[in-house]
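Lab notebook, bench 4. We co-purified these components, and the gel suggests they stay together. Before we commit to crystallization screens, I want a quick structural picture of the whole thing.
Request: model the full complex, all chains together.
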Amino acid sequence: MVLLKGLGRKYCHSADTVTVIDFTDGLKPASPDGATTIGTERTRSDIPVNALSEHLLTREYIERQKRILSFLEKDDLFNKKTQYSLSRPDRYRLGLARAKRAKQFAVKHGWDEDVYKMAEYLIDDVSPLHLHLHMFMNTIREQASDEQRAYWLPKIESWEVIGAYAQTELGHGSNTKEFIMHSPTLTASKWWNGTLGRTANHAVVMAQLKIPDRSNGKLRSFGLHPFIMQVRDFVTHQPPKTIIVGDIGPKMGYASMDNAYMLFDNHRIPHSAMLSRFSRLDLETNEYVKPPHQYVVYGSLTAGRVNIILQARIVLARAVTVAVRYVSIRRQFVNRDTPEAKLETAVLDYPTVQIRVLPLLATSFALHYTGKAMKQLFDRVRSSIEQSGDFAELADLHSTSLGLKSLCTTYATDGIETCRRAMGGHGFSAASGLVRLRNDYGSRPTVEGDNWMITQQVAQYLLKKMKTLEVGSGTASTTIDITLQRFLQASNKTPHFPVLDYDEAILAAFEWRSSYLVSKAYQAREVRGEAHTSLLVQFYRLSNAYSQSILVNNFHAIFTNTAGVSDKPPQGATEVLHDLFRLYALYTIEAEAKEFLQSGALSMDVLELLPGAIQSLMDRIRPHAVRLVDSWGIPDFLLDSALGRYDGKVYEDLFDRAHRQNPLNDHTFNNKWWSDEIELGSGDAGKILAKL
Amino acid sequence: MVLLKGLGRKYCHSADTVTVIDFTDGLKPASPDGATTIGTERTRSDIPVNALSEHLLTREYIERQKRILSFLEKDDLFNKKTQYSLSRPDRYRLGLARAKRAKQFAVKHGWDEDVYKMAEYLIDDVSPLHLHLHMFMNTIREQASDEQRAYWLPKIESWEVIGAYAQTELGHGSNTKEFIMHSPTLTASKWWNGTLGRTANHAVVMAQLKIPDRSNGKLRSFGLHPFIMQVRDFVTHQPPKTIIVGDIGPKMGYASMDNAYMLFDNHRIPHSAMLSRFSRLDLETNEYVKPPHQYVVYGSLTAGRVNIILQARIVLARAVTVAVRYVSIRRQFVNRDTPEAKLETAVLDYPTVQIRVLPLLATSFALHYTGKAMKQLFDRVRSSIEQSGDFAELADLHSTSLGLKSLCTTYATDGIETCRRAMGGHGFSAASGLVRLRNDYGSRPTVEGDNWMITQQVAQYLLKKMKTLEVGSGTASTTIDITLQRFLQASNKTPHFPVLDYDEAILAAFEWRSSYLVSKAYQAREVRGEAHTSLLVQFYRLSNAYSQSILVNNFHAIFTNTAGVSDKPPQGATEVLHDLFRLYALYTIEAEAKEFLQSGALSMDVLELLPGAIQSLMDRIRPHAVRLVDSWGIPDFLLDSALGRYDGKVYEDLFDRAHRQNPLNDHTFNNKWWSDEIELGSGDAGKILAKL
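Here is the predicted assembly.
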């Protein structure tokens, strides 16, 4: 036993563990403790957790997750204990060290890229190599010519070349066989480019290709094209004098990521830098050969958005997992109508907590089935294009993925915060596991298409559909055509769908409301000629209504006879999934009641009954809540949450993090105002100032 | 000129400044730059900014702010440049150093407590001394006997004794003339107590007073009472062995604050520790003397909530200031209906940005007038009680302040995030100035009464009022009585108030909807006897409806003839304030349309017209937006925002923070995966691991 400096705490060293010895060691939580309570919760439901997990994630995924976890848990570098206490520069250092260690594992154990990505997901840093592994590598693979691929890919896959992704202006000097990059103003600086701030030595730069016209020498634009360029030296890791590049500084999240600013001073890159799989510029004649179809640009963006929907699902599931487990364990106040009951009520038994957490639980499943459907649609569209040059469904896929990106990332971002608040005071602690998730994921609503701005593209697509139907020039071919046509044929009615009685009425009500909003926007824009900009709020609401309709349709499809075997949920889970489907739908109808009423899809009488119906569904789902979140199979290692851990040992873990793992408690401070010393007895007056 | 290590950047040292010399030095933002744009914005409106500022804040406040600012701006310790990059322990150290420096100023310059609090507000750390200066000091002043005051206050005011505030269990051993504090379980640990984690040497502990009954020796409870106790030694700053106390670890915000856990092992405190102004325990006879009225507990809590409303107002104003200035400067996309226009549209001209930011601007004013009214009501109630023992309005003040705490802090918390997202990508940067505000203020919805839980007290109060009226036993004396009575006399009607035409119709519509919800809840609880718990969601909505009604009433009062001279806004601002009043009201009616429709306060016809009316109001307010936020007088020092700075130099400041002030750019990293070194050339392999 030793007494450590200034701590007043005794430690017992044995083998490789250090244990604090004080009177708290023998203390246990009050009975019933969290482990007991959550065990009881799990006996209240007979949902087949493993079967539901496999239905959601596939057996292959679950096994891969388990396997990679066993590597990460054994290496101290991936221990998350004190990372919340680190400075921003140390958070970057840690992120870099982890990305490198995972690569060492990958090389040693022959991991393929899917396995590495699983490791990246579980490590749960925003990796400083992220852009290298995704946007940069994908762009080279898709856009480089065979010759360029042969040169670059080995260097990129071996991480000799580490790349980022940026957009910029570009001018081309015709006589020099070089391109010139220049930033004439501060506002021309690139900004936010991940991996480029401190990590990368190369970048793919998407730039306006400008070529001097042979007749008059004036620059002509040929649109965005990808170029690969070196930004830092292989040995010194310094940029050339004609490039200024650095990290933009601290952010709301993404502490371990180096987002960049970059400016060029007439920086020259060779002709060979232009990635020329689809379009190219002849070296001798300066002749431009244009790409075959805009899909080459669309494709990877749409693929990215499909992944964003799948990510939104798991992010929301993660927040809901923490919240459901904690509010099952946490008790507060004895029921005032039965004061003789000694045990306080579990917080999840309060309707005020249920109404926040359980609809989000339902939403996580709604997002899942639509993410999955979008992935299937994307694969089908890509193979149609590749096999038969059939672009028919591309526009539909493109606009649907935009609307869903907007809605789903808003759901997940807001959902994390709702879960956080539903947990009361402890939700504010980093030990909740939701703080970093909230701050990192908070980027989603504004990146890769701002959630408000992109919805105008969805509305434009729908208005175009409506126009075709209105002028009678097209046949109803896609689902949306048929839906709109059905609405047009009955649009003078107020159908008042019996949404409490039939699933079909729910689907019809969502379609009706969405079609009504399309029709209203069409009248404003196409018939009355109102300005596009003046309708943007309408467009946003329309896009959300349309996307919600897609979510209920895809969710409901798993209960129909047409669902494929692999799409059907396991027997024992069907009933509660159906309750979740109805909860998502009815909760959304109530939240958006105004539009459902205005369109005539909902009557005031049914609206009055909705709160009761929603509460009944929540009562039915309540006993299954813990098993439902268990089915998402999110490991404790990823959750990093005292409140949401699988075994329910909430208070033991909270105390352990505070009393044994918090570095601030290793210091004793000088609280005398007349002394500038901060650490008691250290004579460190003024030291903190040097860090400012 | 010197070349600093590994930076590839040249610096020029002159006198006391260091300037980077590279090709970016001469770069300016594209024209028109932010300074020009925001200047133009200010010429578009003739709102008398200074007069409106004085109306909102008082001349005295503005002068005090300016005076204190001049102290803080001159001292490097208050420079916020790199504080976002610090580790959590350093954030605490910095917070402590700043609190001490401000105290040094206070002593040197003879600042009173109001002045010190202004400094605390401008320093904008959550001060590790905060609880000492507020809850601890206030409790001693209010609850200590004259003798105790004489002993403690000099030590407390000189910061020899530094105190915190906690609640705990307490047992009293009758024979020893001591109180015994004991924590039998881990869950009995105190948690979250600010200032107690590392800073305080004393605490006021609110504890259940338990005294053995003389007849049978069993412990009897006498309710919560305050005790003062020492928790750390004056010299060593260590706790005694019978106390375990420490900091709970990192949180979503409050990095500079040491929130505590604390456990007792049969810790004994003397009889004199009980603060005995209002109730006491006789040393010899063990006789308990009870306090005269529960106001002694109510009073300071209610005062706290009134301050929370005033704080919510300024926090929201701060977020809106940043957002309005930035979205006035930021341009994006040329208007598609007028593509010949060369200049891109200012983001604030998009309805999708207006609908997020301008109603929040209106809300900041709504919160102001209600905060002010609540302060006046509180002062009146306190003086009634002190002068004539009249407690008549206390219950009303208590429940109103609870409902408003819930609504106003939700508005402000959500409002910061809405502003952040409305600014697009740059809102995610710490340079927005909203990141720390969002994380610190995020504690508000769950502390000092969870925003959902406390609303049941509001509902209970209103149901009691309704019961009195229904059984006809009381006379309508308070405003809420009169409102409910008016509703009861006409409750079979559907009044369909013409809210677009008359202010009075707006006030009536809010009152009607709120009374309707009271009546509905009354029917459920009192008539049909439904369980209290089952009605909690209804209670929450009811409380919000009631609070919104208070907000529109107080806002509208400034336009009536009965408003006092000091309450009337300056001439040139009345019209736009009236537009803001209507915007807050109509926006709220649309957002809560369901309840307005259900109650019959609103017709479907008027609902259809609301979006147009809201847009017209936003069009009218738009040119005044920058001057309106200027009127809040929030200094750049506090905003700490590149995006929201007064002079509009957004891009210059963003670049300065990234290129010249970001410590991460002083390091060059080793990105080779096969090397464990992190800082290039440092040989630091494994160093980051030691920090985990």
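The first helix of chain B runs from residue 34 to 43. Worth comparing against the SEC data before the next meeting. Confidence is low (pLDDT under 50) at residues 1-17 of chain B.
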